[in-house]
Design a protein that fits this description.
heterodimer; A: alpha+beta; Herpes Virus-1; two-stranded antiparallel ribbon; 1 helix; B: mainly alpha; 5 helical Cullin repeat like; three-stranded mixed beta sheet; three-stranded antiparallel beta sheet; 33 helices; disordered N terminus; ubiquitin protein ligase binding (chain B); ubl conjugation (chain B); isopeptide bond (chain B); Cullin_N (chain B); Cullin-like_AB (chain B)
Amino acid sequence: MKVRIRKWNAVASWRWDVPEDDVCGICRVQFDGTCPNCRFPGDDCPLLVGKCGHSFHLHCVNDWIQTESSRGLCPMCRQKFEFVAE
Amino acid sequence: MPEKVSDQETQSQGKKRKQNLQSPRPSQGFSQRSITDFFGDSTLGLDVPTSRPSSPKRSRKNSEQPELPKDMSTPLNEQAWRRISENRVADLNGLPPHPRDPPNPNTNIVATKPPRPAPFQPHAGAPRKLHIKNLRKPSKIDPDVYFNQTWGSLEAALAAIFGSRKISASLEELYRGTENICRADRAGELYIRLKACCATYVGDYLKDSIIACNSWKDDAVKCVVSAWEKWNAQLGMIRSVFLYLDRSYLLNNANPSLQPVEPTGLELFRHHIILAQEIETKFMDGIMALFERDRQQCSIDASLLTRAVRMVDSLDLYETNFEPRFLAMSREYYDRLGILGATSNSLAEYLDECSQQLHKEALRCERYRLDPPTKRSMGLILEEGLLKNQLLILTDQGSIEDLLQKQDHKSLATLYSLLDRIGEPSSYLRLAWEKHILTVGRSIIEDESRENEMVQRLLELKDSLDSFVRVPFKGDDTLAYALRESFGTFLNARTKDRSEMVNSKPAEMIAKYVDALLRGGAKGTSTGTPGDEDARLAHSLEQVLDLFRFIQGKDVFEAFYKRDLARRLLMDRSASRDAERSMITKLKTECGSGFTQNLESMFKDIEISREAISHFKTTRNRAGNSPNVDLNVLVLSQSAWPTYDEVPVVIPLEMAQYLESYRNVYCEKHSGRKLMWRHALSHCVLRARFAPNVNKELVLSALQAVVLLLFNDAEFGTYLSYQQIKGGTGLDDKQLIRTLQSLACAKYRVLQKETKGKDILPTDNFCVNRHFSAPKFRIKINQIQLKETKKEKEDTFERVAQDRQYETQAAIIRIMKSRKKLRHNDLIQMTIDQTKNRGKLDVPEIKKQIERLIDKDYMERLPGGETWYQYVA
């Protein structure tokens, strides 16, 4: 008996590459969930990974950076917040 | 010949002149011709004695010379002129000549005075005097004598008319006689005599003749009607004779006691005959009897009845004497008929009877020329007797349900239109209608043995109910509304065994039905031409959507739909991508975009994956180190798809490496993401050679493939033990047993089990089935699913229930956050409103969620009598 693979329809699922059960430091919601303003997780509510190692929901950290008191700092470690470019 | 004609003319003219002389004034209005024509035209059927010795000659002459009046005048003038030239005196004004002024026959110009000079004399000569002389002799007959004489002949004529004999005197003379009497101002007297004469005749002779009639006892109507018609004809004749009296004296008389001849005759008849006690009752009863017999469909003399009604009408007795009796009689008749019919027949028969009676009675009113008001009253009487009084029987729920059950459209249509006459039909029908829908609907839903046909049967039911509303019920709004209400009620009714949730069976079955449709395996749509498959599919989907609208547990439907859609997408089983999309669009318009967001992102994942794999392949091909496997990867975003258990499995090394390279490419492109393989969902195509000439292509799941690949290196006939396989694939017992079963114990047995039997034991050994053969080249080996679905279903329900809880909590929090403080009832109401798009919630469930949120310190109860909640920030 000889069996050869002709075609392989693989299925995979993706999730954010952060430890499971980790929560966004701003809204305290799991990264797999959405920020408070979104209803559907996934592409529509992406994460932003900071160079300082802190990740947030894009929408959450956006709101934060736009407030004047933030002075562009990471809310967790007070370093300048720069995100890792994709 | 002309000589002869003129001779006749002169002769007849002479006669005429003599007549003229008898009358005070020359006649002008009525020419001889018109009078004779009037008599001659009489079509009354009497023996009208129009013929006189001279009349044939005259009538012939008339036909030869139609312009008689002109011819008449010519000889007259000639004679007059002759006279004038003879007498030398012109008779211009018709006055009698002055006695002191006798005519002078000898001279035409008489000089009475000596000539005297005149101031103006255009023609010289003596002045002439013009004498005018009346040549007409005053009547010598005494007026009284003349009156009596004429009346004598008139009376004789009347007697002849009454006796239906020939009138001996000339009609023209009679007419002239009347005219002369009238001119002599004795019309009143004439009228009184005429009336008395007629009254004697009608009151005594005619009445007696009616009563003496042979058939008086049995057929009073006939006697009276024929007497009436006879009298009518005679009256016409009388009127013709007394026309001058009628026209000149009676017609314009303001005195109400002086009526024209005809009304007088009618009045006499009415007074002496119809209103006579002994005749009136019998006659009216006779008419009623005729009507009754007609209703009982006995044959009657319809024309007699028509004539009788017409007679009553022309005697002005219709409204006073006939109609009330007729209506009373009809009322009694139909009341009786209603009671009889309603109790002795089935509803359908009775309805038929009622509509027939209504129809027939309307026809009857037409046929016998009954007045429109009578017709209207008859309608009311019928409605009252047949419908209103029998309303209980008409609207008996059991019978109506029976009709609905039998799909008796005709009877129902009749019922509806009958009820429409007496009120709002829907108010009578509604209860039975709703009950019928609920009964039939429940029986379909609770019939577990035919669960698979449920949707089909529901669709059929809906169709038939719709047709009820459309045709027999004429699109009645209330009933259509009741249909929707009741349909929703039974579809969402709770069943006893699943008290936890709203009955979700219909939602589940509808989802399954849609799945079957979209996979293209629809049984119900196999009829019709194959050409318009898309249209048929769209139509079927539209129908199912109709059902879906009634479902309150839309979240249950979504869960099942999502699971089925996932399977279709992963296995590529969808019959038509367009149909899938249109279904999503329909759901979106039905339930809002939130409902379909996940479903849409599933489609999006498929699209993105397709792009990603082609990108991956181009880069790999450039690198030139791809194994000869057609790889396809679907990357799912976890939140949108149903959750799947992770199944540990060992993938063959070569394949694993290939997949790993894909994972790297993917992660390079999307940083911050992690890719996890879902091998349980993968499927693949294997080329297998069982014997040197037996090559087959196997379509199977990745797990099956992994098992088969273990046998790749083994010799034919070598057995691999269960434990060996387990070790080689890394599958757990549950999955492995399922996989081995599908390979060794199902329709296509690729593997051979050492011991016979359907069950897989941990001690079993397997080898490749060397004698494997199948008619087709490409073989699809299904996974064993049966046992799994039961659990899957439970899982789905569980998940739905859980989702519902979260959804409820989220809704409550959203409301509380915006309102801060809210009364208990308001909160419940608002929560239901917010979530009704996804599924209907129960109050106890909402209460439970409120409790839970209070426990979690999201909100708190305020102290006080009424229950107030406050949001805790």
